[in-house]
Amino acid sequence: MRRNLAPDVNRREAWAWAMYDFANSGYTTIVITAIFNAYFVSVIAGGASWATLVWTLSLALSYALIMLTAPLLGAYADAYAAKKRLLFVTTAGCVLFTAALFFAGPGMLWLAIPLIVLSNFFYGSGENLIAAFLPELAREGSLGKVSGWGWSLGYVGGLLSLGVCLAYVSWAQARGDTAADFVPVTMLITAALFALASLPTFLILKERAQPQPHLLGKNMVQESFARLLQTVRHARHYRDLRRFLICVVFYQAGIQTVITLAAIYAQQAMHFTMQQTLGLIFVVNITAAIGAFAFGYLQDRIGHVPAIALTLLGWIVMVLMAWASEGPGLFWAAANLAGVCMGASQSAGRALVGLLSPVARRAEFFGLWGLAMKMAAIIGPVTYGMVSWLTQGDHRTAILCTGAFFVAGLLILRGVDVIRGQQAALREQA
């Protein structure tokens, strides 16, 4: 393990960095993927025909806010060496607004929507910031491995949150509680686990970046925008990074659709109960952890682009399997294939951005990666929501349309030249 880390990084610090993935995965697993999304549609919105669309539009609004602020936060973090300080603020925001979802009951769309928008905004902003530490911790040839450690540990964190919530839900249902009784408590559990598990990151992880020379006559906001504009003007020098970010928009649109709507599809199309859905997602998190860890090593061996291409082919097969599923057997197989591909593609994408980014602008470029991720998180789920609404709740047609995003991503990926992209990043450093 030590040989994969930068010379001044020890195993303890690498573990502390990966623990943030462990900590924040509970939010996506419980709030976005497994429990609160289905609760929002069936209980808060009363199972209305427009409920899935409203859920996806609420998330889209939060992602739009992240798109507006991510490059600015990245530029500010680079200029003032403030990644860790900003990460603390975003973590506190996500924890507090997740806990506040406890108060969102049946019919309370006026409260649930703002809380989802704010909690997801802070989660996504923190996701960009923690990713920007990766190139400081790993050797260039081990970015995939170290990224894979984080993603795989993240799925373990999701499993812990899901396991605790599943145990509580089973106990609550056994005593006759309804979803309106036990789902709010799972929000408190999720917030508490996020806060506790993130402590090693803030206590051990170091801020190695040095403040950049400031621009005379400009305040913090003006300087951050000025640095961002410089990146945009120089974008022609990073053609491969730019092409890969476009690729990310497409294939992540498909991935974000699966993450956002997995429980809804399981309950609406496959008629799973909440316990069956939680059991399915619990197992899928295990396969996702395995996929992230194994592909972290595979991508460093075969190359980042071939590894991502392999996962996109897997995603296409998964969509076809889910669309064709009439019973639980094939759907379980499709879901676990999605788990393997999810862990692998998420880890590989983050590592490739680190490889193509110049050292002095890593937080800024990871801000652009976050921009692409959040644009994808708007396009994919909203497309699914629109298709399901226009087809009177036909979730099978909606999932089939999702496959087009993976096909487009695979075609765009073919034009990414990693060696040329690395050379462009090195020229910037020189």
Brief description of this entry?
Helices cover 81% and strands 0% of the residues. It has 430 residues and is mostly helical. It has a single domain (15-205, 224-429), classed as MFS general substrate transporter like domains (Growth Hormone, Chain: A, Up-down Bundle).
Structure notes:
The chain is mostly helical and 430 residues long. It has a single domain, classed as Growth Hormone, Chain: A (Up-down Bundle), CATH 1.20.1250. The chain has 17 helices and no strands. The protein has helices spanning 11-34, 36-44, 51-80, 83-100, 109-131, 134-137, 143-174, 179-197, 199-204, 220-233, 239-268, 274-302, 304-324, 328-356, 362-390, 395-413, 418-429. α4 (83-100) runs antiparallel to α5. The model has no long low-confidence stretch (mean pLDDT 86).
Strand segment tally: 0
Uncertain segments of ≥5 residues (pLDDT<50)? none
| CATH class bucket | Mainly Alpha
Mean pLDDT: 86
The total number of structural domains is 1
Blueprint of the fold:
Elements: H1 11-34, H2 36-44, H3 51-80, H4 83-100, H5 109-131, H6 134-137, H7 143-174, H8 179-197, H9 199-204, H10 220-233, H11 239-268, H12 274-302, H13 304-324, H14 328-356, H15 362-390, H16 395-413, H17 418-429
Helix pairs in contact: 1-7, 1-8, 1-11, 3-5, 3-10, 3-15, 4-5, 4-8, 5-15, 7-8, 7-12, 7-14, 11-12, 11-14, 11-15, 11-16, 12-13, 12-14, 13-14, 13-16, 15-16
